[in-house]
UniProtKB/TrEMBL annotation:
Name of this chain's protein: Ribosomal silencing factor RsfS
NCBIfam families: rsfS_iojap_ybeB
PANTHER family assigned to the protein according to its UniProt record, in alphabetical order: IOJAP SUPERFAMILY ORTHOLOG, MITOCHONDRIAL ASSEMBLY OF RIBOSOMAL LARGE SUBUNIT PROTEIN 1
Family: Belongs to the Iojap/RsfS family.
Example GO BP: negative regulation of ribosome biogenesis
Species of origin: Filifactor alocis (strain ATCC 35896 / CCUG 47790 / D40 B5) (Fusobacterium alocis)
Listed GO CC annotations: cytoplasm
Superkingdom assignment: Bacteria
Keywords: Cytoplasm, Repressor, Translation regulation
Length: 114
């Protein structure tokens, strides 16, 4: 859970919006958690993703893969147990991961940050 706290804090530090954590471990084998957040422009999307990477490095976690820095509309950081999705608002509405993963329960962010 330390990783989740670090990710959420890093997103909040750069003013990420509409942060959601989905517990996908019972509905998929690809990961345990999806962390989804958004921002209103590409520059913020990139800044949030970069801050997540920097803060995770501080606790010795490194992304296995990362995608989307070239367009900055949907950046994905794969940490194995946690996959972070940072969207520009329009892309988030279009792809609607929360609907696609509707069987995955939400985790209350306040319990992570406590």
């Amino acid at each position: 859970m330390n990783e989740l706290k670090t990710i959420i804090s890093a997103i909040k530090d750069k003013l990420g919006e509409n942060i959601v954590i989905l517990d996908i471990k019972k509905v998929s084998t690809i990961s345990e958690y999806f962390i989804i957040a958004s921002a209103d422009n590409e520059r913020k999307v990139s800044a949030i993703a970069k801050n997540v990477e920097d803060e995770m490095k501080n606790i010795s976690y490194f992304a296995y893969s990362k995608e989307g820095y070239d367009t900055q509309k949907w950046i994905v950081l794969d940490y194995g147990e946690c996959i972070v999705h940072i969207f520009k608002n329009e892309e988030r509405a279009f792809y609607d991961l929360e609907r696609l993963w509707k069987d995955a329960p939400y985790i209350d962010i306040d319990t992570i940050l406590a």
